[in-house]
Amino acid sequence: MITWGIIIGVLILMAGMGVWNHQRKLKLRAHLMKEAIRNQDFSFRLPINDLLPGERAMQEALNELGENIRQQMNKNEVESWERLTRVLTHEMMNATAPITSISQVLLSRPDVKGTPLEDGIKAIFDTSRHLSDFVTNYRKMSELEKPVLAEVALFPMLDELQKTYQQLAWTTNVPADATVHADKGMLRQILMNLIKNAIEAEATKIMIETTNTHHPSPHPQHPSPITLLIGNDGTPIPAENRQSLFVPFFTTKRTGSGIGLSLSRRMMIQQGGMLELAEKNLPGCHVTFVLSSI
User: Fold this and answer.
1) Pair 175, 210 in one domain
2) 67 and 184 within one domain
3) 287 with 255, same domain?
4) Burial of 9 (0-12, 13-18, 19+ CB in 10 A)
5) According to a count of CB atoms within 10 Å of the terminal CB, is the N or C end of the chain lower?
6) CA-to-CA distance for 197 and 199, rounded, in angstroms?
C-alpha cells in the first residue's frame, strides 16, 4: 500500500507540475499578445503546437483576428492618406492655375520682354507649371484599377527585371517553381519601383529571397503565401525616417517625388498583402523591403 501510495503521489505531482507548466505557457502567451496589442503590432503569430484542441482553435482564431485587424488598419491608413491627398492636390491645382495663367499673360506683354522682370516671372511660370504637371501625373498614377488576382510565376518576372536593370549585380534565391497570388501588372510595377528606389540610393546590387509563411492566408485556394525579401546595398535609411517612408510625397532625395513607395504599398494592400521595411537586412544589404502575404 505504501508503494502504491508513493506511485500515486508521484503521478499526481507530475500531473500537477504539467498543468502548472502548461498554465505558465498560456500566461506567457497572454502577456505577449497584450504587449503586441498595446504596441499596435497586429502582425503577431503565436504557434499552435503543444496546445489542447480547444486551446489550439482559440489560438488560431486569435491569430486570424490579428491578421484581419492588421489588414483593416492598413486599409484605413491608405484611405486616410487618399482622402488627404485628394484635398491637397485639389487645393494645389486651385492655387497654381491662376499663378500659371497670370504669369503667362505677363510674359506676353511687350513692356516685360527684355526687362529684369522677365526672368523672375518666367521662373514663377515654370515653377507653377511643373507643380501642376506633378499633381496631374500623381492623380493619374494614384487612380488604381481593381487588381486581377491570379497565380503568377516569380522566376520569369525576376529574370525579366534582371535583363532590364543589367547595371546591378543580382542575387536571387527564389525556387524556379515559386508562384504568388497577385496582380501581375501591379507586382511588376512594385518591384520596378523598389529597384528604381535602390538605384536612386546608389545601390550596386540587389538581393531577392523568398520564404514561406504560416500566417492565415487571405486566399483559401492559396494556403501557403510567400514573403518576398528585396534588399539592396544603397544608402541606409536613417532611423528617424523609417516611420515616414511610406507617407505620400515624403522623400530624402533631391530629385525624388515621394510617390513610388507610398503607391507601391497601396498596390500591395489592394492585393491583400503588405509592403514594409524589414527590421533585419539581408546579408550584405543596407535596406531590405518585405512583400508579405502574396
Assistant:
1) yes
2) no
3) yes
4) exposed
5) N
6) 5
DSSP secondary-structure letter at 11? H
- The C-alpha atoms of residue 212 and residue 225 are separated, in whole angstroms, by 6
First to last CA, the chain: 64
Nearest-10 crossing angle of helices 260-270, 116-142: 20
Cα dihedral across residues 174, 175, 181, 187: positive or negative: positive
Residue for grid cell 550584405: 284
Q: State how far the Cα of 141 lies from the Cα of 149, in Å rounded to an integer.
A: 20
Residue with cell 546591378: 168
Could you give the CA distance from residue 281 to residue 198 in angstroms, rounded to a whole number? Answer: 14
288 and 233 share one domain: yes
Considering only CA atoms, which of 175, 169, 185 is closest in space to residue 154?
175
Of the residues 109, 126, 142, the one at which a domain ends: 142
Cβ–Cβ < 8 Å for 180, 271: no
Tell me: do 177 and 283 sit in the same domain: yes
pLDDT in tens, 274-293: 898 998 999 999 999 999 87
- Contact status, residue 294 vs residue 226, Cβ threshold 8 Å: yes
Return d(Cα 164, Cα 176) in angstroms, integer: 19
- Residue 277, phi then psi, degrees to nearest 5: -95, 125
Residues in contact with 203: Cβ distance below 8 Å, sequence separation at least 6, in sequence order: 168, 232, 233, 234, 287
CB under 8 Å to 81, separation ≥6 — which residues?
Answer: 247, 248, 262
| Overall domain count for the chain | 3
Distance CA 63, CA 68 (A): 9
pTM for the predicted model, two decimal places = 0.66
pLDDT tens by residue, 44-76: 677 777 777 887 787 788 777 777 777 777 777
Residue 173: strand pairing partners: 209
Same domain, yes or no: 34 and 60: yes
C-alpha cell of residue 138: 500623381
